[in-house]
Every structure is written in C-alpha cells, then in structure tokens.
Write a structure and sequence with these properties.
Chain lengths: ~500, ~150
C-alpha cells in the first residue's frame, strides 16, 4: 500500500512538470471541444491528433491522448443538456433528463452535477487503476504465449460485444482487420507478405492512414451528406453552482454510477457507452418515484455522467496491465504506444514507471482542470456550437492530410488514406462497423506471434490452449460472451440498448 | 428503420461480396508464400488461415443475402465522396512537387465542392488562413521537412 503512494508521488512529480501539465491541459481542452461539437467523436479526433504527438515524449503523448478521451466525456454532456444534442454516444441518456432540466430553467444545476459527478467518478476511477494495476500486471507476467493468445481472443470477442448490429458481421470485420494486420514483413523470416511488391508496405499498413481513413475522413464524408443542423441556443445560463439540496439528492446516484462505470470500464466488452446506459437503467430501478425520470430527474444526469467518466478512466486498466484494448479508443492508444516504441503489456509498470504513474497522476490533475474548464467557461463552449460545419470540415481535411503525410513524410500514406476512407464509407453504407476491424488490425501481429510460439512449444499440438488453466479460463469466458450475445433474449436487450 | 430489401440487394449480399473479393486478392498474394506445417509454420500459414476463414464468412453472408431479405444498402452520396477523396489525392500529388502552400490551397479548393453549403468567399479565406497557419505550425515550429513553395 505504501508502495502505491510512493509510486503515485513519483507520478505526480512526472505529471506536474510544466511540459506535461501543458499537454494534459491541451488534451482536456481538445477533448471538451470535440465533446461539444457533434459529428466529431473521440476516435476520429485522437486519430487526427496522433501524428501531432509524434514530436512529444511518449509520456506527454499518452497524457494528452488520455485527456482527449476523458475530456470528451465532460464536453459531451454540455450539449446534451443545453441543446438536446449528445456530443458523444456516451451522453445520449444524459440528454433525456438533462435537457428537461434545462427547459425547466435548471440548466446550471444539471451542468454542475454532470461536472461534479464526472470529477468524483474520475478520481475514484483513477484510484482503482492505481490499486489494481500493479497486482494485475504481476499476474499477467505469469502468462505464457498460449495464455496471451487466449487473452487476445477475449479482447477480440469483446469488440464483437461492443459492435452495434449483427455479431456475425462484426466477427467478419475482425478477420478482415487481422488479415490487414498481416501485411508487411514476416517477423520470423523477414519475408514480405501481401505487399503487392510495394516497398512502402514492407513495414505494414500505416496505422495512422488506416485509422484516419476509416474513422476520420469517412465520418466527414457522411456528415456532408445531409443539410447541416443549425443549432440555436436560447438557454440562459446563470451562475453554475448546484444548490445544497440538489447535491444531496444526486449524491447516491453519483456513487452508484461511479461503481458501475468502474466495473464496466475494466470488463472486456464494457466501455463508457454501455456504462452510461446501464447507470440510467439502474437509477430508474432504484428510484422511489419512477415517473420523475424523463421529466428532469437529477439522478438521470448524475448517474450516467459519473458512469461514463469512471469507465473512461478504468478502461486503461486492461490496456496498461495486460496489453489488450477493450474498445476502439483503447486500440488507438495501443497504436499510439507502439508508434513511440512501447509495447503495451504487463511490463509497462515495471519498465516504464514514469508512463504508468505519470498517466495516473495526470488523470487527477486533468479531471480537476476539466471542472474548471467546464464550469466557469461554459459560455465559450456553447458559443462554439455556432461554428458552421461548412468551415469546420475544411479545417479537418487539411489537418488530416498534413497529419498523415508528416508521419513518414510520404505521399503514399496520403493515397492509402484515400483508399481507407473509401473502404470506411462503403462499410458504413453496408452497416458494418469499422471498430472491430481496427481491433483486429491492432492485435493481428500479436495474435499471430503468440499462436506460432505456442504451437512451437507444444510441438504442434493445438490442445495446449485448453491444457493451460489460464488459457482455458480465458477461452471459456470468450465462448460464454459469444454465446450470450447470440442468444435471442440478450440480443433483444442489446438492440433495445442501442436504440434507446 | 429502413424497410427490408429484396433478395440480392441487401447489405448482407454486398458485404459478403466485398469480403470474398478481399479474401481472393489476399489468397492470390499468399500463394507465393511458404505455408509450412503446424510444426514449422512458414510466413504464409497464419495469413492463409485468416484469408480462408474470411472467404468462408464472405460466402455465407453473400448466400444469406441471396436467399433471404435483409436491410437495404445506405444510399451513396457521390458528391462529398468524390470531392473529399480527390482533395486528398491532390494534396498527396502536390505536396512534394509544388510545396505545402499550393497543396493546401488545392485541397481546400476541391473540398469546397463537397458541400452545397460552402460559400466561396469563406472557403477562400479559410484556405489562405489554413495555409498560413500550417506553414507556421508545421514547417516553422514542428519542422516537418517539406517545402513551402515549389
């Protein structure tokens, strides 16, 4: 226990250097910005800003990218409450009661409880990472390659759970991603694979080009399809501070939301969106008077907003301790770490203590900054909504192009982005989500390596995956997850959750 | 919710077709790789397995789309699609030949036509501002090795 505090102290020393403080703030501001602007999600933005973190040290880079992710959870609630447009999918349920509160003239109360709930949840979530991280990493260090292989399988299955729509198609997308991940040099023999004879592909498909095309540019193109929505905000926001009575009413909801979010963040197949939906459902269930929900119940804002922020923090646990991403955003973090030459996994805590503890400490600081960014300065963010998309998208495409180009200073990467944008657009039209594809792409090389290594140690016997207890347990969990989403009852429930 | 689409004209059929196409191309290129055995896996072993699974899943989807009704394909909007993709291509072609400033101006000029709501005066100002800002931030501060002008 004292070790944790000593390490955390070290983390604060890392996070409080002026440069890291600056990038923490920059991430928090960027996150709030994209959270406020609809039609620009965290996945697209983080992929947009990935090249910009190139010049930074790995610690500053990951601190900033994390700031964008949890900052977006704060910003998303602002527009959900004020104009009934959730900036992020995680704030969809917040709009139900939050916007009602705003209509009743209680906008400031709703905004304040969203920010305070998020802050408390963020702090508790961070403590959970600090306490859970080291023991989990120690446990994962016992893993041999068959166990790793099964862990990756679990990670991939969780991508299926997260995907909206047909599970079969999500699995197909994973295999497509895995196959794309194979492009480039074979690790064991150095032979070029599926490079079409192009030298540019020998290091594999450029991660930034793939992500930016599939998520960033494809999203811009679909946003340009219809007429843009003009947002007029007539709401007057007074001083943002909740009354004592309101705080007391929301206290329980904040804590319940935090607990739920913390849990969902760690679990594979959880994630911030599902956490916020579940928190809303839970608040509705425990409330004495259910009719208040949908009519401006403060718990309906406090619960989901706390849950999504807690989950945003704790979803770093599987990434930093075991090296598996549990969502598309975390897959991006894997990419970011790999770009900086750091292999995500159990060795991060012992080999890169600055990175692990610095990131945790920066989350405390970032959450505090976000409360300040969001509460007194809320007027500025709301005014940003007035920026028309016809100007915004021009800025986005130019930053995208320069960003992709600057990774390797190669025009080839820009052309590759064009290809992946087309693929991303077509996949959208075919109702196939690109997120599982990304997970497959990121995990592909690791899956292959561990698969090959396992079969070498077992002399070609595939039973090795079932003979090792850890591997067997992980595979059983994966199978249970897969079967559960195929079952009609759960399937129905999933559809409801996504449609609500 | 979109109304169900007829056989052969639904998302299942076309996503299946797409997967089959990708898997076929991959298989053509995996052909030249050594596959090896379970005991001594060659570079082609794992990709071959993946491509075959993908081919199988693609065929399943395509057949399902042919036999049953499914949800229709979303409508393609060619104007934003073509303009945005072209604008990126123009940037890629021009950035090393004509310099960053011209590449950005060309990209904005083409991207301008992606939306019907853009106004040429605003786009012109945005383009000039973006070129100037990029020159300062990326070339001057971040020192990306790229020429500003031809």
């Amino acid at each position: 226990m004292t070790d944790v505090f000593a390490a955390l102290g070290h983390g604060f020393a890392v996070a409080a250097t002026p440069i890291n403080l600056f990038f923490c703030l920059a991430g928090a501001i960027c996150g709030t910005l994209i959270g406020v602007l609809p039609g620009l999600g965290p996945v697209a933005t983080i992929s947009l800003l990935l090249p910009a973190t190139y010049a930074l040290s790995p610690v500053s880079a990951i601190i900033m990218l994390a700031g964008i992710y949890y900052g977006a959870q704060y910003g998303g609630s602002t527009t959900a409450i004020l104009v009934n447009i959730p900036g992020e999918s995680t704030s969809v349920v917040t709009a139900i009661d939050g916007y009602k509160m705003a209509q009743q003239g209680r906008a400031s109360e709703a905004l304040a409880i969203a920010a305070i709930g998020s802050f408390i949840a963020g702090c508790i979530g961070t403590v959970v990472i600090a306490l859970l991280g080291p023991p989990l990493a120690l446990m994962t260090q016992q893993f041999a390659s068959p166990d790793y292989f099964s862990l990756m399988v679990l990670g991939l299955v969780s991508a299926v759970v997260l995907a909206n729509g047909s599970a079969f198609r999500a699995i197909a997308m994973i295999f497509l991603g895995l196959l794309l991940g194979m492009v480039g040099m074979d690790l064991n023999t150095g032979e070029a694979r599926m490079t079409f004879g192009l030298v540019e592909l020998s290091d594999g498909i450029n991660f930034v080009a793939l992500v930016m095309g599939l998520f960033g540019v494809a999203e811009v193109i679909s946003n340009l399809e219809g007429a843009s929505v003009r947002i007029v905000n007539k709401m007057r926001i007074g001083t943002i501070w909740p009354s004592f009575k309101a705080l007391r009413g929301a206290w329980g909801a904040v804590l319940r939301g935090t607990a739920l979010g913390t849990l969902f963040g760690i679990l594979p197949g959880g994630g911030a969106t599902i956490a916020s939906f579940s928190a809303y459902a839970l608040e509705k269930r425990v409330a004495r008077d259910r009719s208040r929900f949908g009519n401006g119940a403060i718990e309906g804002v406090a619960g989901p907003e706390s849950a999504n922020n807690a989950a945003a923090q704790t979803s770093f646990v599987p990434l930093l301790t075991m090296g598996i991403p549990t969502s598309a955003t975390m897959a991006l973090m894997v990419g970011a770490l790999t770009l900086h030459g750091i292999a995500p996994g159990p060795m991060i805590i012992s080999r890169q203590p600055d990175l692990f503890w610095g990131l945790i400490a920066s989350m405390f600081l970032g959450n505090a900054m976000l409360v300040i960014i969001n509460l007194p300065m809320i007027g500025i963010w709301v005014r940003l909504l007035a920026v028309p998309y016809r100007l915004l998208y021009l800025v986005i495409v130019v930053i995208c192009a320069i960003g992709v180009y600057s990774v390797n200073n190669s025009s080839f990467d820009v052309y590759m982005t064009v290809g992946f944008s087309l693929l991303g657009y077509v996949l959208r039209k075919l109702d196939a989500e690109p997120a599982p594809l990304l997970m497959g792409f990121v995990l592909g090389p690791m899956v292959e390596e561990n698969f090959r290594r396992s079969l070498i140690t077992s002399h070609g016997d595939p039973m090795i995956f079932l003979q090792r207890p850890i591997s067997l347990a992980l595979l059983l969990v994966s199978a249970a997850l897969l079967i559960s989403i195929m079952m009609p009852a759960v399937r129905q429930r999933r559809v409801e959750v996504f449609q609500e | 919710m979109r109304s169900p689409a007829g056989r052969g004209h639904n998302t299942d059929f076309y996503s299946g077709l797409l997967l089959v196409a990708v898997a076929t191309v991959a298989l053509l290129y995996i052909r030249t790789l050594e596959v090896g055995t379970v005991l001594e896996m060659g570079p082609g072993y794992f990709p071959l397995g993946l491509a075959l699974v993908l081919l199988g899943m693609g065929l399943c989807l395509a057949v399902k789309g042919l036999l049953a009704e499914g949800s229709p394909i979303g409508s393609f909007h060619l104007r934003p699609l073509i303009c945005i993709l072209l604008s990126f291509t123009a940037f890629g072609v021009l950035v090393e030949r004509a310099g960053l400033i011209i590449a950005i101006l060309a990209q904005v000029a083409i991207a301008h036509f992606a939306s019907v709501e853009t106004r040429w005066r605003q786009s012109l100002v945005s383009g000039v501002l973006l070129a100037a800002a990029s020159a300062v931030i990326f070339v001057w501060l971040l020192k990306i090795p790229v020429d500003l002008l031809p």
